[in-house]
Structure prediction request, 77 residues.
Amino acid sequence: MSEENEEQFEEITSEEVDRVVAQLETLIESTDSENIRSYLEEAMNEIYYLVYEEEEEELDSEVEACGEEDEDLSEAA
Prediction:
């Protein structure tokens, strides 16, 4: 059973994502068809968010927490 779980989840590194995104950007730049470009851009975004979506959500949470602290200080003054 634990072998099945290991096969279902794989670790994707940010280095691999960065490499693939860079290659897709190059491919997009050399593509004439707007339809193909659209699909490639969508794929590039999906791949990017495999790794970076969680990091951005964490940063957003930290910024919101800082904003709330600032509001509390201004209300006290």
In short: The chain has one domain: 11-76. Residues 11-76 form one domain.
